[in-house]
Amino acid sequence: MAPLKQGSFSNWLLAFRAPKKPRGASGRYTCVVAVKAARRAASKERVSATAKRSPWKRRVKLAVSFLFIALTVSFLYFGFRFYRELEWAAGIVPNLDEEISKISTNPSVIVSADGKTLYRVQTEYRKPADFGDIPQIVRDATLAAEDHRFYDHSGVDWLGLARAAFVNAKEGRSAQGASTITMQLAKRLYTGTQRTFDRKLKDMALAVQIERYSTKDQILTTYLNQVYYGSGAYGVRAAADVYFGKSLDELSLGEAAMLARMVRRPSHDNPFDDLDRAIRNRNLVLQRMLEYGMIAQDQYEAASQEEVKLAPRRFGSGARTLAASYFTDWVLETLKKEFPDLDITKGGYRIETTLDLELQEYAEKQVAEVIEKFRKQKLTTGAFVLLNDSGQVLAMVGGADYDRNQFNVITHGVRQPGSSFKPFVYATALSSGVIDTHSRISNEPLSIEDPVKGRVTWPKNANGKYGGEVSVRTALASSINVPAARVCIDVGPQTVSNFARDVFGIRSPMAPVPSLALGSSGLSLMEMAEGYSVFMLKGDRLRPYGIVRIVGPEGEVVRSYSPKFQRGVLDRRVAEAMDGFLRAVITGGTGTRARTVENARGKTGTTSDHRDAWFCGYTNSLLGIGWVASEKRVNGRWEYDPMSRVFGGQVTIQIWEGVMKEAVKKYKAREDVLPGPSSIPASADPDPDLTSLPSTMPPVTEKTHLPLRPETLLRARLLPRFQVPPSEPPTRCPRRSFRANLNPGRPANETRFAWKSASIAA
Q1: How confident is the model at residue 156 (pLDDT cuts 50, 70, 90)?
Q2: Does residue 139 contact residue 256 with C-beta atoms inside 8 Å?
């Protein structure tokens, strides 16, 4: 080939760019350009034709290629990770027999006075069972619901995994799971419930390891002892007890199928919360058992129509009896408060209590019957607490329905006591020497200044009768409001408040206002029980308690409880005088319905708006406090509405009367040993021994009209231990305040009072 001339290559490029034939070009150049142009045109034609013929084939080929690459990479990644997890799992050698042996079979228990179990104190209620104790229908139902190929795979059901992946991809959601029973057991024993890909791989690796070291029967037995069935029950044996009150061999086919389905969503699928859903799930399991050949057609039809009979619902750990739920809550609170470092949930402790289960069940029955009887008068709840003369709580009904409302009114409720507070007022006046047992008090109402209504007459008597004078005995027995208010003002509301706190053990805040005499400050039933114990014990005060002793896991006594008394908090003569007055309430006052109870003494109480109705009473050795109300739930809170003319002496006293009759009958020997009510003479003849109460204070010699003495509004005559320091500022009520404007020119019964609130409970 001849060498190119200088500049020929650049000329050739210029010629190639130009499609036109240059001047003077040879024919050979024209031929080359034409051939290249023809080739380009043919190539474009072929590409255009291919694109027109099959555009989707290219896309399919590309998609398949990408999918193949993705699957290959995923498979390699999954295989590598699974291999790594297998190496990790190889270091774990599971011992399923040991896992079953770890289950505590000796939980802490709270027992009644006669040794009956009230509550198993454990976070998990378990009753382990051996493989031979688990019926075939229970095993088959579990396999049908969770893993019907359990005996065919080696820990991981690869076929089921592929099927679940296909179904979930088709549905576009997680419609089907692929966890085997062995994988679920691995999750429960080792990996936890965190929903991650790593945890799933660990479950699979551990499942393979478990299958390597354990038999299928061991795995199934451990699973049925570990799985959670809701309502605090762990294990199928505990679940059978909680939901049906049966042992495993007593379960029917339908009950076994219902239990088998609960393990997926125990908080939603248990029959206590949604019986209809539980029945649908039961029938679904029965259908699967029929498809897998585990049961026959006639068995399926009979079980799917089976009536569900549930056991009474239990609470907490699934081991609490329906009776005494409020009491056991109180015991647990006491343990937590007094023994913060004692973990009784670990098992082995025995808490022996004072509860008389027979009287407890009778008290619950009485409360329910009275509520049902007066439901038309808007009565919906009630409470009752019964103590003996040592302070032991024999029965405690903290509300009408524990399932509906777990709030214990007895220990935590603060309700206005109404006239049942009046004995504390009269006891204060007797102790301070303002009155004696034969004083006569004016029944003329006071004239007060109300900021809204102006001058009004206060307080109002329930019978609408005023005027004249009445004895202390009559004023208390008939629950007349005016004399109680006058005595409270004469002694001093602050004095009454201090006396109630120091002598009667009232710890709730009490507003030092005249309406305190009518029970305007809220108290708890337990406080009222402690206060009335001073009258029952003739001057001593008891402290209610419910625990007798705590026995440790090794049989050692961790703590013993004994009666707690405060001796001589009230002069015995004052206590005996009040005891006689409270007997008059029963023999001829507002509490005559309780006359059927031997040696009964007590006081009724009803608030002016009929939101609370009380009866507080006692016998020689027994003390009971009853209360009823109308409650409803509003925006997540419990509120109390007025009832329709429900009085403590007509309604609440029926609860007290019914329970106390049974209690007196049961503890008759104790009743006969103790002295009866104090014999305060009914006549107006003065008793020289009682007119000088207490001996350290001068007696009140005036037996007729008890005027309002302004000086006692500011400085009460008290026993030294109850003296209010002069420097102590007066306590102001957060809701209302009272101010006495002393005017020498105004009659005593028209002393002017200014109120910031006229809301007074009588």
Answers
A1: confident
A2: no
End-to-end CA distance of the chain: 133
Share of the chain above pLDDT 90, in %: 49
Residue type, 551: V
Which residues are within 8 A (CB) of 560 and not within 5 positions of it... i.e. 6 or more apart? 548, 549
Residues 531 and 432: beta-carbon distance below 8 Å:
no
pLDDT by residue (tens digit) across 99-115?
Answer: 666 665 577 889 999 99
All residues at 6 or more sequence positions from 93 whose CB lies less than 8 Å from its CB, including other chains: 209, 213
Q: Which top CATH class is 101-122+321-417+522-677?
A: alpha beta
Rg for the chain, CA atoms, rounded? 43
Sort residue 271 into left (φ over 0), alpha (ψ -120 to 50) or beta.
alpha
pLDDT at res. 340: 82
Where residue 204 falls among pLDDT bands split at 50, 70, 90?
confident
Domain 125-304 -> CATH class = mainly alpha
Task: Label the pairing between strands 108-111 and 613-618.
Answer: unpaired
Note the pLDDT tens digit of each residue in 568-615: 999 999 999 999 999 999 999 999 999 999 999 999 999 988 999 999
For residue 552, give the 3-state DSSP assignment: coil
Average pLDDT over the chain reads 79
CA-angle at 556, arms to 550 and 558, nearest 5°: 40
615 beta partners: 604, 626
CB burial of residue 103 (10 Å; 0-12, 13-18, 19+) = middle
What residues are paired with 523 via a beta bridge? 415
* Torsion-angle region of 710 (φ positive above 0: left; ψ -120 to 50: alpha; else: beta): alpha
Structure confidence by residue, pLDDT tens digits, 640-698? 889 988 999 999 999 999 999 999 999 987 777 766 675 443 333 333 333 333 333 33
What are the boundaries of each domain within the chain? 101-122+321-417+522-677, 125-304, 421-521+701-762
**Domains 101-122+321-417+522-677 and 125-304 agree in fold:** no
Q: Give the dihedral sign, CA 528/530/534/539.
A: negative
Give pLDDT tens digits for 413-424. 999 999 999 999
Q: Write the burial class of residue 716 (CB in 10 Å: 0-12 exposed, 13-18 middle, 19+ buried).
A: buried
Closest CA to 238 of 392, 124, 386, 329: 124
Angle at Cα 568 formed by Cα 566 and Cα 574, nearest 5°?
A: 130
Question: Where residue 64 falls among pLDDT bands split at 50, 70, 90?
Answer: confident
Q: With contact defined as beta carbons under 8 Å apart, do 290 and 283 qualify? A: no
Q: Please compute the mean of the pLDDT values over residues 496-520 and round it to a whole number.
A: 96
Nearest to 317 by CA among 557, 519, 127: 127
Q: For residue 694, say if its preceding peptide bond is cis, omega within 30 degrees of 0.
A: yes
Mean pLDDT of 165-176: 54
Task: Return the DSSP state at 101.
Answer: H
Q: Which residues pair with 560 in a beta bridge?
A: 549
Burial of 312 (0-12, 13-18, 19+ CB in 10 A): exposed
Report pLDDT for 175: 44
DSSP state of 56: H
Higher-confidence residue of 124 and 278: namely: 278
The DSSP secondary-structure symbol of 233 reads E
CA 189, CA 170: separation in Å to the nearest integer?
33
Cβ 225 vs Cβ 126: under 8 Å: yes
